[in-house]
Write a structure and sequence with these properties.
about 170 residues, alpha+beta, three-stranded antiparallel beta sheet, 10 strands, elongated, disordered N terminus, DNA gyrase
């Protein structure tokens, strides 16, 4: 479904499972009922409006297994017209969390739109791929070359380096 601006109702973020904590249990103070919530931490190098928001966290209502990337990836649907509150603990120069007079951690809060997060994640992934993508060959070609090398070693009868006697 699209609105008159041509945008869908939801923005979907896709993150690796290492950045998503699902079904964290807690007890509701008012009712005593056991409930759960989800938590997402943005990867390092995620920049929005010139500010690094890596390690900022937010709590989405839903987290789903990714339909396109595989079982270790998660899709997070966010309403396109609602701000997301990114929170991060404020740290002192030694790296310890700063606390207020009541002993609670002081949080840095940044309000952003979901599309800004999606664009920032796309940009950081692209930058990472350019930095780490030195080999111009496709993944299938690199795998084939590795298999061919391993088979050549087996055919030559040489032992693997870790199987040699040291002496």
């Amino acid at each position: 479904m699209a609105d008159e601006r041509g945008q869908g109702k939801n923005v979907y973020l896709t993150l690796h499972e290492n950045f998503v904590r699902e079904d964290i249990a807690y007890t509701d103070r008012a009712t005593g009922e056991r409930k759960t919530f989800n938590q997402v931490r943005l990867p390092a190098g995620t920049v929005i409006d010139g500010k690094d928001v890596g390690s900022c966290e937010f709590t989405p209502l839903f987290v789903d297994a990714s339909r396109f990337k595989g079982p270790e990836w998660r899709d997070i649907p966010l309403l396109a017209d609602r701000e997301v509150w990114l929170k991060r603990s404020v740290l002192d120069p030694e790296g310890r969390p700063v606390t207020d007079a009541d002993g609670k951690r002081v949080k840095d809060v940044m309000k952003v739109m979901p599309q800004e997060i999606k664009d920032a994640l796309t940009a950081s992934r692209r930058a990472w791929a350019e930095e780490h993508g030195d080999d111009p060959r496709a993944l299938a070609d690199r795998g084939r070359a590795a298999r061919d090398s391993a088979e050549a070693i087996d055919r030559s009868g040489r032992t693997r380096p870790d199987a040699r006697e040291i002496g």
